[in-house]
Write a structure and sequence with these properties.
Largest sheet: 5 strands, mixed
Shape: globular
Strand content: 35-45%
Distance between the termini: 96 Å
Number of helices: 3
Structural class: mainly beta
Strand order of the largest sheet: 22-3-2-1-23
Number of strands: 42
């Protein structure tokens, strides 16, 4: 490739245009090439190699999807709460099956997955107990690895012996001698490359039809020499290589016998254990030396209640803030629970206090489609090699290349795109303060115009005009009127009061959002189930008596307050009226009134009783 000379002070400007953020060595090479007047410089000196790009730090998380879909899905995030799918590590058959689709029968997904990184390899970890022949009950860690976040090895412990706890787990006598359960396994890679695995062992009531009756305690094991048995892209069945130490009990300065879901985080030489106490409350403890994990006096309580009503805690620090990820409990608060689960995040600038803004995270794919999530682990990725692996997987998923230094509106090939610190907005809602408007960018990054879009993060349908601005208020399109919330832009559905035509109550279809006209049957909730009448021109809800042509023509009454068609006995204007229970037709003459269990005369002209 041939390049023309840059003149004078524009030399370095040209270099930046051509290369983005290159390492200093490559900058000097290119500068020398151009200054010396070399017309045909090597292409490698002019193009930003992926190895040279200084990618921003990011969060990487893995969650299992749902009780029905036990797939383990890998995501990345730049704000701590919105996660974009970059791959599915273990896609299952569905319907509650843990078998990984298309793999040998022994390959299963990892429940409650934990994600880690070490020397060019990402790992997903889980664990379970099994009764091994001639060995008795053993705790079995399950490790899967990937060098590209796309190709994953089959989960395996890397040991035929697996792990027998040094301290026999307490089961409260609820299980046969030697048997015990495990729940909530998590992993952490230390600064020296050692793998620390934490889990809880004992009696897990849910496994035996006795929810809320857990007797569980935390345990810890160190594994050294961790590395993949082979490149998973070449040999996914190769077992990981590592050496396990002793599986020993963690003893906290608290006499509770109900601990679950431990996870580890390290900062400035101190280890932090996040763990759920008594089934509902998530706490943080600290320790300077994990070899003293069995000494209750060595642990310090950092926070007694980060958040209550959640489980599966995972702690990380990103952009100066701590993020605490948990899975909402389906049955809390007891007697008032809504029965739903899903991952939430709580944040603070301090581990000991100030936790706030507990909110549900979003997990979406490149199309913007929402993916369900259950608890897993989130880590902050700052290693340059790890960030490159994540970004390459993101590009492969279809989100686009990283563009160093790009911010705000960028025109590429005649189309407008939006960048946040080099990251192209893809399947994303964006606010531009300069135009004071919201925009949506589709999965290819292009600006959405004259289009309705579903936004998972707000659980709303919105509409964008020809300039890409989010529409707010009333809008006529597709042969009908629609209404969008003046603040959020969310498409309105159901009964709504709007200010036009002097103010009126109207109905927007519960499915399409289109304004109703004429006779309409509404049934989106118990309070509004029934027939209504809306003006053919304005859509305004009608109240009072009127003649309608349905059922051969009839006089009906629409409630003077609610607008719903009246049926049965009705008192109005100091008189009784009766309306057919099926058609709503006003009855006249001698009529049987079930409420009175007798016949009653209603005026043949007015219907008064």
């Amino acid at each position: 490739m041939v390049f023309r000379f840059f003149k004078g002070e524009n030399i370095m400007v040209g270099i930046r245009v051509l290369t983005g953020r290159l390492k200093m060595g490559r900058m000097k090479t290119l500068a020398t090439c151009l200054v010396m007047g070399m017309i045909a410089c090597p292409m490698s000196g002019l193009v930003a190699n992926a190895d040279d790009i200084d990618y921003p730090d990011m969060e990487v998380g893995v969650f299992w999807n749902s009780d029905n879909d036990l797939s383990d899905t890998v995501y990345m995030s730049y704000n701590g709460s919105d996660f974009q799918q970059i791959s599915t590590a273990y896609k299952t058959d569905g319907n509650g099956s843990s078998h990984v689709t298309g793999k040998p029968s022994y390959v299963n997904s990892i429940h409650d997955p934990s994600i880690m990184y070490k020397e060019g390899t990402f790992w997903i970890l889980g664990g379970y107990t099994q009764n091994q022949n001639n060995l008795g009950w053993r705790f079995t860690p399950m490790l899967g690895s990937s060098k590209n976040l796309i190709d994953w090895s089959y989960p395996n412990s890397g040991s035929s012996q697996n792990l027998a706890p040094v301290n026999a787990p307490d089961t409260g006598g609820n299980l046969p001698s030697g048997q015990y359960d495990s729940a909530g396994t998590d992993g952490f890679i230390d600064d020296n490359g050692d793998l620390w695995i934490v889990t809880t062992l004992g009696y897990y009531g849910a496994f035996h039809g006795q929810s809320q009756k857990d007797i569980m305690h935390p345990y810890l094991v160190k594994a050294t020499g961790l590395q993949p048995g082979s490149d998973p892209a070449m040999d996914p069945g190769a077992q990981p290589q590592l050496k396990y130490g002793d599986l020993t009990a963690i003893r906290l300065p608290d006499n509770s016998n109900n601990w679950l879901d431990p996870s580890l985080y390290k900062e400035d030489g101190t280890y932090y254990l996040s763990i759920k106490k008594n089934g509902v409350t998530n706490q943080i403890y600290s320790l300077n030396d994990l070899s003293r994990a069995g000494d209750s006096s060595a642990w310090k309580l950092v926070n007694a209640n980060v958040v209550t009503g959640y489980e599966g805690p995972s702690l990380t620090k990103y952009n100066g803030q701590y993020y605490f990820y948990t899975d909402k409990l389906k049955d809390y608060p007891y007697g008032q629970a809504d029965g739903t689960a899903g991952t939430f995040v709580t944040q603070s600038s301090s581990l000991s206090s100030g936790w706030h803004n507990t909110r549900r995270i979003t997990t979406t794919n490149v199309d913007g489609r929402s993916i369900p999530n259950r608890h897993g682990t989130v880590i902050t990725v700052s290693d340059s090699t790890a960030k490159r692996i994540v970004w390459n997987a993101r590009v492969r998923a279809g989100y686009g290349e990283y563009r160093p230094g790009a911010n705000g509106w960028v025109t590429e090939n005649g189309k407008r795109y939006w960048y946040d610190n080099g990251v192209k907005a893809v399947s994303k809602e964006v606010y531009d303060p300069d135009s004071d408007a919201w925009y949506w960018f589709d999965k290819d990054g292009s600006l959405a115009t004259n289009k309705d879009v579903y936004i998972p993060s707000g659980d709303k349908w919105v509409r964008y005009d020809a300039q890409g601005h989010m529409i707010k208020g009333e809008d006529y399109r597709y042969g009908g009127w629609y209404y969008f919330n003046p603040t959020t832009g969310a498409m309105t559905k159901g009964m709504t009061y709007v200010p036009s035509n002097g103010g009126k109550w109207v109905y927007y279809d519960w499915t399409t959002g289109k304004m109703a006209h004429g006779e309409t049957y509404v049934n989106y909730d118990a309070a509004h189930t029934g027939w209504y009448l809306f003006d053919q021109n304005t859509g305004a809800m009608f109240h009072g008596d009127t003649y309608v042509r349905s059922n051969g023509g009839k006089w009906v009454r629409y409630d003077f307050t609610t607008g719903k068609m009246v049926k049965g006995l009705n008192w109005h204007d100091n008189s009784w009226y009766y309306f057919d229970q099926a058609t709503g037709a006003m009855q006249k003459g001698n009529v049987w009134v079930p409420e009175w269990r007798g016949w009653h005369w209603f005026d043949r002209t007015t219907g008064r009783g």
